[in-house]
Each structure stands twice: as C-alpha cells, then as structure tokens.
Amino acid sequence: MSLENKLSKFGKWLDNISKKCGDLLSVIFVIKNPKKKEMQSPVISTYSILIFDSFIAFLSIFISIHLRVGMDFLDYSPVYIIKNMLVFGLVSSSIFLFLQTYQSFWKYTSVEDIIPVFFSVILSNIIFFPLMMLMNQEDFLPYSVLVINVFVLAIILIIPRFITKILYNSRVNKQKRIDALTKIEERAIEIPEILLIGSPSSIDIFLNEVISNDDIQFNFEPVGILSLDQLDTGRAIKGVPILGSVRQVGYVMKTLAQDGVFPRQIMIAEKSIHEDMKKFLISYAQEKGILLMHVFHKYTFNTVME
C-alpha cells in the first residue's frame, strides 16, 4: 500500500473520530445548530447536570472523611478511600437518575426543586450505609461520616443552583432596567414640544389638569409660554418660562432654535382670545408649517391650523 493511500485512510479515521466526539459533546451540552433559523439557548443539558451532581457526590465522601477524622485521614489506604468514593458516587448517580433531580433548570431553582435534591442526598447515604459496613472489614470508617456527608453533599449541590438563579435574576433585572430606560427614551422622543399661549391663570390650569395629569392621554412637553401681557415676560409658571408676548412669537421661536429647541406645535390655553390675535397666529402657523391648537374647555382640543 502506497504512502498516499495510508495517509488518506488515516485522515478518514481522524474524521470519524472527530465526528463521534462532536456527537458526544452535543449530547452532553446543548449546542447551537447553524442550519436552524431559531437558535437553541446555549444552556447546560440535563446530562451534564447529572454528571456534575455525580462528581460532587464522589468528592463529598472524601471531604466528609477528612472533616471527621482530621489528620488521621492519612492512616487510611488510598485504595480504601477511593473505593468508598466510587461506591458512593455510583449509588448517588442511581438515586439522581431515579428521582430525576437533574431535570430542573438551575436558573429557575425554587424550594420545590431543592426538596428532591435533599431527599436524594439522604437516600443515597442510607443506601450506602450497609455497603460501607461491608467495606469496613479492611479499615474502620466512623459511621458519623455519613451524617456529616448529608450536610456536605446537600450544601455543595444546592449552592451552585442558587448562585445560578441569583446571577440569572440579576441579568434579567438588569435587562428590565435597560428596557425601562429605553421605553422612557422612546416615549420622550415621541412627546412633542409645544409653545403655550395664554394668561398665567389659564396656563396654570392647563399645566395642572392636562400636562401634569397622568390620566390624560395628551402628552406634551411645554418649552415656553407666550403671555397675553408683555409685563409677564421673564417669570415662570411651574418651571415653564414666559418668553414673551404673543406678538413676539417669531422672535421667541428663533431664540429657542438657537438653543436647539424646535417646537412644532402652539397650544392656545386661553378659552377666548382676540380675533386679530387669533388671525395673526393662524397666519404665522401657516407660514411656518406649525400645528396650532386651541383648548375650548377642559381636556378638549381643536386643531385651528395645521
């Protein structure tokens, strides 16, 4: 057989090995499928949870023995310790499979999910007790090790589940805060900036009953006030400044534009306004392409000119 054929066969053998390893990993972990439009969530599968719990059970006996006997731990033969660890690990794995404690999602862990885990820990130690007595013919292992192991194994199994839940909740709450801020920003973008026209009393009523009332579905952002009296200029009503009189609407709009504010609506909050002044505002709104509205009575608006 030529060297080229041998290399070709060796390459095919490596491809088969890598494919089998990939299939094994896809069983242990949930892997994204690039061919599907909807991607599966890259979460740990139930099989990997079972492997993790079994490994923790395997280590828990080692920890419990060390906690019970202290430095006398070195008096036991390594073979005897490993034998106890393997047997307890197999017993625990069987119990986990039987009670299906690996089926629950860690990020949604609740008290109802913890009860089967704790029950499986107790049951594993009870079943392991007669097996430990048989293995005690080589070396004596204190029976109180199993009592300690109940708490050790339960703690080590439960803590990662609650940590995962805390991290998940923290991420969800962070995303909720981001979504809330996004909605506020979007809402702020949608709220139109308006210029109010009217006497201080009518403006105050309008701001109280319409702008500041969450039950009213009209959302406006008042950026300034044009008063019917020139003497009111420079004052403010509920934080909204009086920028000038009605006849100064052109000057006020230019001043606001210099500050980066461009109101596209003018709201007449006065119930009645002089006809000449109304015609002046209609003419200005037509020229500038601004929406002009008039409050006739409580909560009722009418488009004067668009």
Tell me about this structure:
- The protein has a 7-stranded mixed sheet.
- A hairpin with a 2-residue loop joins strand 6 and strand 7.
- Helix 2 crosses helix 5 and helix 4 runs antiparallel to helix 5.
- The chain has helices spanning 3-28, 46-69, 78-99, 111-135, 144-190, 200-211, 249-258, 275-288; strands at residues 193-197, 221-227, 236-237, 240-245, 265-268, 291-297, 300-305.
- It has 306 residues and is an alpha/beta fold.
- The protein folds into 2 domains: 46-185, no CATH class; 192-305, NAD(P)-binding Rossmann-like Domain (Rossmann fold, 3-Layer(aba) Sandwich).
- The chain contains 8 helices and 7 strands; from the N terminus they run αααααβαβββαβαββ.
Shape: rod-shaped
Question: Which strand order do you get reading across the main beta sheet?
Answer: 3-4-2-1-5-6-7
Task: Provide the helix percentage.
Answer: 55-70%
Number of H- or I-type helical stretches: 8
Which structural category fits the helices and strands? alpha/beta
Number of domains: 2
Features:
single chain, 306 residues, alpha/beta, Rossmann fold, 2 domains, 7-stranded mixed sheet, 8 helices, 12% strand
Compact overview of the structure:
With 306 residues, the chain is α/β, with parallel strands linked by helices.
Write the layout of secondary structure elements.
Layout: H1 3-28, H2 46-69, H3 78-99, H4 111-135, H5 144-190, E1 193-197, H6 200-211, E2 221-227, E3 236-237, E4 240-245, H7 249-258, E5 265-268, H8 275-288, E6 291-297, E7 300-305
Parallel strand pairs: 1-2, 1-5, 2-4, 5-6
Antiparallel strand pairs: 3-4, 6-7
Helix pairs in contact: 2-3, 2-5, 3-4, 4-5
